[in-house]
Design a protein that fits this description.
Keywords: DNA-binding, Sigma factor, Transcription, Transcription regulation. Pfam families: Sigma70_r2 (PF04542). The chain is mainly alpha-helical and 138 residues long. Helix content is 72%, strand content 0%. α2 packs across α3, α3 packs antiparallel against α4 and α3 crosses α5. The longest helix has 23 residues. The protein is globular, with a radius of gyration of 15 Å.
């Protein structure tokens, strides 16, 4: 399995930047919840946040070779998300709350290595968040 062969995020990025769709899929899997959450916090709309996340990963796929520092992948993806959300707001086609636009611009990675217990807690919080969001009636 590809996930077992590629052990670091840099391996995923290197492989994906040569056109390996499976490696890029692992990047998407790792960051899709974060990007969807950022987009949802900015828009307040689940469907729109999913569309924005899809756009983020499309742009990332197209421009992955331009990523200068693989250690900053998360910040780079957040920057793409921020720009796409800003464009949605500028176009004014959606009723978007602006509460979280500053999230990505203030988001800094203090360490490229997240302790496993913090990562597990974060993943559990994200699952709970999405389960709660899915229960909200349209």
């Amino acid at each position: 399995m590809l996930e077992n062969m590629l052990t670091t995020e840099q391996d995923f990025i290197r492989s994906a930047s040569t056109g390996n769709k499976d490696a890029f899929g692992l990047i998407v899997k790792r960051y899709q919840t974060l990007i969807c959450t950022i987009a949802y916090n900015a828009t307040g709309n689940i469907g729109l946040s999913e569309d924005i996340a899809q756009d983020v990963f499309l742009v990332a796929w197209e421009k992955l070779q331009e990523l200068r520092d693989p250690n900053k992948l998360c910040a780079w993806l957040c920057g793409i998300a921020r720009n796409i959300v800003k464009e949605e707001i500028r176009q004014g086609q959606h009723d978007i709350t602006r509460q979280a636009l500053s999230f990505c611009s203030d988001y800094e990675i203090t360490s490229t290595s997240i302790p496993p217990d913090d990562q597990a807690i974060s993943e559990e919080e994200q699952k709970i968040l999405w389960q709660s969001i899915e229960k909200i009636p349209d």
